[in-house]
Amino acid sequence: VQLQESGPGLVKPSQTLSLTCTVSGGSITTNYYYWNWIRQPPGKGLEWMGAIAYSGSTYYSPSLKSRTSISRDNAKNTVYLQMDSLKPEDTAVYYCNAYRVVVTPNDEVRDYDYWGQGTQVTVSS
């Protein structure tokens, strides 16, 4: 599975950020895959923002839920992130991630973890 993030590199404060994660090599509706958005501000650790499941259910970080929306287009095999009311502290590298855990018929647990290369987003006037 390959993931490619895209979006504007520079956004002004209070504006809305829209990012796209284009997926190839697998379907976003494949069972048990969770498609995550994760970001990393400069000098800080990774922050999970939210996810959309293979079923279409969505999950959000409580701290970002009020400003974040994750959606998908099955026909385009693409996942989207929208974030409103941007602030300078939202400056970060934004990553798209695909994660899946399955148990094989032999009772082996296998996990699949794929990342895009990330896209820099800078919030500045």
Structure description:
- This protein has about 120 residues and is mostly beta strands.
- It contains no helices and 11 strands.
- The strands form 2 sheets. Strands 2, 4, 5, 6, 9, 10 and 11 form a 7-stranded mixed sheet that branches.
- β9 and β10 form a beta hairpin.
- The protein is elongated.
- The model has no long low-confidence stretch (mean pLDDT about 95).
Which features would summarize this protein structure in a list?
125 residues; mainly beta; seven-stranded mixed sheet; four-stranded antiparallel sheet; 0% helix; elongated
Overview in brief:
The chain has 125 residues and is mostly beta strands. It has strands at residues 2-6, 10-11, 17-24, 33-40, 47-53, 58-60, 68-73, 78-83, 92-103, 109-115, 119-123.
Element layout with pairings:
Blueprint: E1 2-6, E2 10-11, E3 17-24, E4 33-40, E5 47-53, E6 58-60, E7 68-73, E8 78-83, E9 92-103, E10 109-115, E11 119-123
Parallel strand pairs: 2-11
Antiparallel strand pairs: 1-3, 3-8, 4-5, 4-9, 5-6, 7-8, 9-10, 9-11
Flag low-confidence runs. Answer: none
Task: Note the main sheet.
Answer: 7 strands, mixed
Per the principal axes of the C-alpha atoms, what is the gross shape? elongated
Q: Supply Rg.
A: 15 Å
Number of helices: 0
Kindly name the structural category: mainly beta
The percent range for strand residues is over 45%
Number of strands: 11
Give the SSE string. Answer: EEEEEEEEEEE
Query: Kindly state the mean pLDDT as a whole number?
Result: 96
Helical content stands at under 10%
Give the termini distance in whole angstroms: 36 Å
